[in-house]
Amino acid sequence: MQFLNVPIAIAAAAILLLPCEAKLGHGPSPLDILQKRHSHNRLHASPRAEDSKNLLQKRGTCAFPTDAGLVAVTPDSTNAGWAMSPDQACTPGSYCPYACPPGQVMAQWNPKATSYTYPLSMDGGLYCDSNGKISKPFSNQPYCVSGTGTVGVVNSCGGSVSFCQTVLPGNEAMLIPTSVDGSSQLAVPGTSYWCETAAHYYINAPGVSTADACIWGDGSKPIGNWAPYVAGANTVANGDTYLKIGWNPIWTSSSLSDTMPTFGIKIECSGSGCNGLPCSIDPSVVGIGGVTSADQASGAGGANFCVVTVPSGLTADVVCFANSFTNPNPNSQLIIFYSNYFVNSTSVN
């Protein structure tokens, strides 16, 4: 499947600032990246947050720019608007990531971060100097640039759906919010973004606000990194866009999966020529963990996903829809079978 040869990670910029070692065909595969997204390594903020608190007491912080058209992330917490964990401050001597408006991506990062390697992979955003002042690493570039514009979201669920994008370069927590009432653009990176990485999103249930959804969760609710579905997208050198939707392996491996999601997701294209359709997830039809696709595959944690190739010149939408029926026992495939049987019988007669 073509998508497996394409690096999948986070967000895009419009001008090639500095080549990265993780190039097309040589970087981590979508499965590798997805596994990194869902591992619990270095995504928890507590050790770094504790260090940040100590630095805060000793050296102060850098203020979030409120006049730059950026999206403030939990501005009333210690991060004060930066796309960092709520209890983590932007301290002197560090890079501080930020969130851009929907459809746009961050255009600033550490020029020395030329490969997808920790800890330099944390160095997205603006530099906070020893005097507590911020500066652009690339002074001639804006804070944010438009993505490739190839992927949007259509919400037909009846309640707002929160798409939470992970921060990379940054701590890879799902902090960048996009609230979708009717439709919205998603930020899709091209080859000029940091290390040719892609955008990765957690898709929350209808009615969950971005304030509640786009934070690191604790597993008590199906929100944030515990949301049921994930998506990823990037545009490659020939103009094709690879768009993936799948189950979140953290959700499927937890007790949260005992309750069926009330919504599904699918990919629709603006015209003919997309490769990989149908690509949809409707748990009321295929059950928990099921995917409708001829090219479905399993990734991190055994979670299933499907990928659609969107040719240059076309666009695609991730469509969120209400389930055809809600099954209180998601493991009861017999109930699903008979439900579909009677629906089909009624249609025929």
TrEMBL record:
Keywords: Signal. It holds the Pfam family SUN. InterPro entries: Beta-glucosidase/SUN-like (IPR053088), SUN (IPR005556). The keyword Phosphoprotein does not apply. The keyword Signal applies. Residues 1-22 form the signal peptide. Belongs to the SUN family. This is Putative sun domain protein.
